[in-house]
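User: Quick sanity check before I run a bigger batch. Here is a single chain. Can you write out its predicted 3D structure?
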Amino acid sequence: MVDITLEGDSLVFEVEGWDKLWALRSRLQIPLSHIKGARVDDAAAKGWWHGVRVGGADIPGVITAGTFYTEGRLVFYDTHKPEQTIVVDLDKHENFDALILQVRDPAGAVKLITDATSNRA
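Assistant: Done. Predicted structure follows.
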């Protein structure tokens, strides 16, 4: 699971618990200007194929965590439960093209991201 906070002109995505080990990352800090948008999307975490695993863990139906290369894109995953999944689309300035994350409150997380990116100067 990932916790999202606003710090200045960036969003911080903190990977929690054992997921730090499986995802091979504990924190991502993304400038608001590099975030194109966010949406609730349980389909993004479903299925057994998420792409070529570059680093991390992938046990279908249990956990997808880490970096995956899929459809010409580099994507960071940290999901267990598709129904709690959001997708954050990033622009070309970032290492990842998208973040697919499990959060406690998907609608609230999308609202936080949308409000923060729409209020930037």
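Residues 29 and 104 are 19 Å apart (CA to CA).

User: Great, the batch can go ahead then.
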